[in-house]
């Protein structure tokens, strides 16, 4: 089965799936992104939740509640004794907040996802949260991260796929895979190396293909034309020998070629940006650049 078929995307040409990362933070508006998205019309959007979700974490939300209560108190004209008593009460309220957090967290995550789906309309969405250790922006612990992703999967919103990193703790990884499969969402198992192109890239892909994931992705840093050609050759040599669709790319300037030509070697998706300022990985081209390069093939 091709990746297009698996993700139920219409097939308009023989080109790979173009996915645009959505990397908006909490203070940013969706409008300009949505407008460009509709103009440029890629196949999919990858919601990089790590750019925004931490702003709604338990610690951040408690700080907001606490600050609100403290500000209210500061405006009241109360004695030192009363103030001390009320401050102690705020601290007690923390326990109540913690007890209520799981339900609040579910509601917050659902609202956040609702905003994303409302903003990008009909475009299929890949859910990705990547921690700083995995090359992303997220600061959640592995457990918080897994809770976030599983909650998002169970939110009822129809994600087209979920992306998880191969380096994630195996038990947590399986928990996410099981949750995704329960609600019929395909899993992209990803491997990133932001420094080099590992010499054993083929073995890494074959190893990942043994896991119960539906799509395999490898993104590695290219430091030379040779690295990029190696990655393309590896892609060609393993794409047919694994049962899942494969996505590969060389990151960095040397790797740009792989984002254009990868599909000739068996990579079925390429990531591109709507404008040159919002890269989610080094070396990404714009959708317009990609189209131009394909016209010249
Ligand atoms: O895994 C990938 C590929 C990527 O790292 C790239 O190099 O284009 C960009 C990420 O947003 C995405 O999750």
Automatic annotation (TrEMBL):
Keywords: Amino-acid biosynthesis, Aromatic amino acid biosynthesis, Lyase, Schiff base. InterPro entries: Aldolase_TIM (IPR013785), DHquinase_I (IPR001381), Type-I_3-dehydroquinase (IPR050146). It is an enzyme of class 4 (lyase). The keyword Kinase does not apply. Gene3D superfamilies: Aldolase class I (3.20.20.70). Its EC number is 4.2.1.10. The keyword Metal-binding does not apply. It catalyses: 3-dehydroquinate = 3-dehydroshikimate + H2O. PANTHER family: 3-DEHYDROQUINATE DEHYDRATASE (PTHR43699:SF1). This is 3-dehydroquinate dehydratase. It comes from Leuconostoc aquikimchii.
